[in-house]
Design a protein that fits this description.
This protein has eight helices and 15 strands. It is an alpha+beta fold. The longest helix is centred in the first third of the chain and has 22 residues, at about 30-50. The protein is globular. Bound molecules: 6-O-phosphono-alpha-D-fructofuranose (P6P). The site of 6-O-phosphono-alpha-D-fructofuranose (P6P) has 9 residues, from helix 6.
Length: about 325
């Protein structure tokens, strides 16, 4: 039997897929399965909000800045509340680290799982109807169950992830996740309110000819990134940049390509956050046969030292990421 997608047919509901996958692991307690279902539920709730955002007063700025100093959008705050509530009610999570909260959100100390999340990435695109996404990463806590969650439970390397995924609120809404046994995509069937298997065992195509980077920041790129972008142009590759990480990532995984958010003079460690953006997508990318680096090393090997630390990010088709690293490995930001 094909271990990866168990031969489950396209159209299999997410809950049934998760249950069948759990049967592969005799010692599974069902906690991770329940947690994935809780995330799916929150995604359906947020999808409702996102789809109505033009009609309700939930677009635009909330009037606060998040821990990153970025203007919180109303839907950012709503998504953070919805996810936190769904994970609290689901009863499988001991703590959350969220882009929208500076400190750890402590839930049930008797649970084993920690969730790192960006509840709604790309939120500045909400008002102009461009695709946005939720990104999540799941770890087992390292401190004793029952005791208070410690920083070490959250500051774990990406290689420790037990699951990761994203929800893309686009022309259709998709949930894509991995538990380390392939990457599977589920499309929301709105009339049923169910995520249904639409892409089993997703893999990058060999190679790729799309590069995604905000060339408006060209003058503040490091020399190596500039040389790589010039190389892409000389080869006549296609430039595609939506400005919404999940949307750019998803397209590049399906069609072959690389997404880059490098270190810049304005953001010397890059813009994207290691724990709940880079690590989650890096786990998915590697499971799909791709790669993810910070320009010098595998993202999943980076030892986190702060909840909201940033990292330069090069992610996509393995050969494109490796080719880019040939330019950036010894490049320094002037
Ligand atoms: P820039 C959105 O704010 C985000 O975090 C990613 O979704 C997106 O790829 C990137 O920032 C866009 O940043 O600086 O190019 O506008």
């Amino acid at each position: 039997m094909n271990k990866v997608n168990l031969g489950l047919p396209i159209g299999t509901p997410l809950d049934r897929f998760i249950n069948k996958k759990q049967e592969e692991f005799p010692y599974a307690t069902g906690e991770l399965s329940q947690l994935l279902r809780d995330i799916g539920l929150a995604g359906k709730i947020i999808n409702q909000e996102v789809n109505k955002s033009g009609l309700l007063d939930i677009t635009g700025e909330y009037g606060n800045k998040n821990v990153q100093g970025e203007e919180q959008q109303k839907l950012d705050v709503i998504a953070n509340i919805r996810f936190t509530r769904s994970l609290r009610n689901g009863g499988q999570v001991c703590a959350i680290i969220s882009e929208e909260d500076e400190e750890i959100i402590h839930l049930n100390p008797h649970c084993r799982y920690v969730v790192a999340m960006d509840p709604l990435d790309g939120s500045s695109n909400i008002d102009v109807n461009v695709s946005i996404g939720t990104i999540f990463s799941i770890y087992r806590r390292v401190s004793p169950v029952g005791g208070p969650v410690q920083e070490e439970d959250v500051l774990q390397k990406g290689t420790n992830q037990v699951a990761a995924g994203y929800i893309l609120y686009g022309s259709s809404t998709m949930m894509v996740y991995t538990t380390g046994h392939g990457v599977h995509g589920f499309t929301l069937e709105p009339s049923l309110g169910e995520f249904m298997l639409s892409k089993a065992d997703m893999k990058y195509p060999e190679g790729g000819n799309i590069y995604s980077i905000n060339e408006g920041s060209w003058h503040s790129f490091d020399e190596g990134t500039k040389q790589y972008v010039n190389d892409c142009k000389e080869k006549g590759l296609t430039a595609r940049y939506i400005g919404s990480l999940v949307a750019d990532y998803h397209r590049n995984m399906l069609k072959g390509g690389i997404y880059i958010y490098p270190a810049t003079k304005k953001a010397p460690n890059g813009k994207l956050r290691l724990l709940y953006e880079c690590n989650a997508l890096a786990f998915i990318a590697e499971q799909a046969g791709g790669a993810a680096t910070d320009g010098r090393q595998r993202v999943l090997e980076i030892e986190p030292t702060a909840f909201h630390q940033r990292s330069p990010f090069y992610i996509g088709s393995k050969e494109m990421v490796e080719h880019a690293m040939g330019f950036t490995k010894s490049s320094v930001l002037e």
